[in-house]
Specification:
Blueprint (H helix, E strand, L loop, with lengths): L14 E3 L2 E2 L8 E2 L3 E4 L12 H11 L5 E2 L12 E2 L16 E3 L1 H13 L8 H5 L4 E6 L12 E5 L4 E9 L2 E4 L8 E4 L6 E7 L7 E3 L5 E4 L8 E5 L4 E3 L2 E10 L2 E9 L4 E4 L17
Parallel strand pairs: 5-7
Antiparallel strand pairs: 1-4, 2-3, 6-7, 8-13, 9-10, 9-13, 10-11, 11-12, 14-17, 15-16, 18-19, 19-20
Length: 286
């Protein structure tokens, strides 16, 4: 993805071999990034993952050695593409000549190959908020509850700016920054590490869309309870159940219905969920 770390890429023990990519329109054929002859150390490193998640891991690992390129992997179909120059990052000056992936482009490709469908077409932020989520984990939980294939993210509630794929054993595979190649890294749980999300091949049951900007969820179905997570814009969410609680007036609407979002472990007023005031087909919380 479009992160701008300037740390040097760690030297790996991966044997590399050159491949030649087809030329893009208007560009001469060229030798592209070295591809991994064997992605040593990049594999499913722990039990517990679904078959699709394991395939996503191995697909990402098959790209070890391919260039990071800004905007790469966001063509009409999943797969490597030539990048573009990031005007804020001098290291990206050669990205238009490099065929590869940015962080979310790699994740998109891995899960498209794993599921047969382009389910994660978008930025790292939209991938974190995917309706295909089956579980979410906060930064404070670290890697303890994670399994291979989970998506690790960095940023905050307003903007997730980087995503990587967990391998297990404290390792991840990532497209990190311009001037580097796809690599295995130690998981970085410091800084602005935001948490992780587990994805599945089909939308979760009870999926709805929010609307509005800067909408907060809460620990309890009340605006006076602690805030949990902010939706910067419209977001797909899974609703487990709903209940009548505090009456809220916002956007010219008054409603006392609240929905519980299991992936966020939080409540949101139904005012900000598209649909009727009491959502159709959603059970009452017990």
């Amino acid at each position: 993805m479009r992160n701008r770390w300037r740390a040097a890429a760690a030297a790996g023990a991966v044997a590399l071999s050159l491949v030649t990519w087809p030329a893009a329109a208007g560009q001469p054929a060229r030798a592209a990034a070295p591809r991994a002859a064997a992605a040593e150390g990049c594999d499913v490193l722990a039990p517990g993952a679904s078959a699709a998640a394991e395939k996503a891991v191995r697909t990402a690992c098959s790209q070890i050695g391919v260039w990071y390129t800004w905007g790469g992997g966001h063509g009409p179909a999943p797969g490597p593409t030539y990048g573009t120059v990031d005007p804020t990052d001098p290291a990206s000056e050669h990205d238009p000549q490099r065929r590869g992936f940015d962080c979310s482009g790699l994740v998109r490709y891995a899960y498209a190959e794993a599921t047969g469908r382009d389910i994660l077409n978008g930025t790292a932020h939209s991938q974190y908020h995917t309706p295909h989520a089956t579980a979410r984990f906060g930064a404070a939980e670290g890697t303890g509850p994670l399994v291979p294939g989970d998506l690790l993210v960095w940023g905050n509630a307003r903007k997730v700016h980087h995503v990587a794929i967990y391998l297990g054993a404290g390792k991840m595979v990532e497209a990190r920054q311009s001037g580097t190649r796809i690599t295995v890294s130690d998981v970085r749980t410091g800084g602005d590490f935001f948490g992780a999300v587990r994805v599945d091949g089909s939308p979760g049951q009870g999926t709805f869309s929010t609307w509005g900007t800067d909408v907060w969820t809460h620990v309890e179905p009340s605006t006076t309870s602690a805030r949990v997570h902010k939706f910067a814009g419209p977001t797909s969410v899974r609703v487990q159940c709903q209940k009548h609680a505090q009456s809220v007036t916002a956007e010219g609407i008054t409603n006392d219905a609240w929905s519980y979002l299991p992936d966020h472990r939080a409540w949101i007023t139904n005012i900000y969920i598209k649909g009727p005031a009491w959502l159709d087909g959603v059970p009452t919380c017990r």
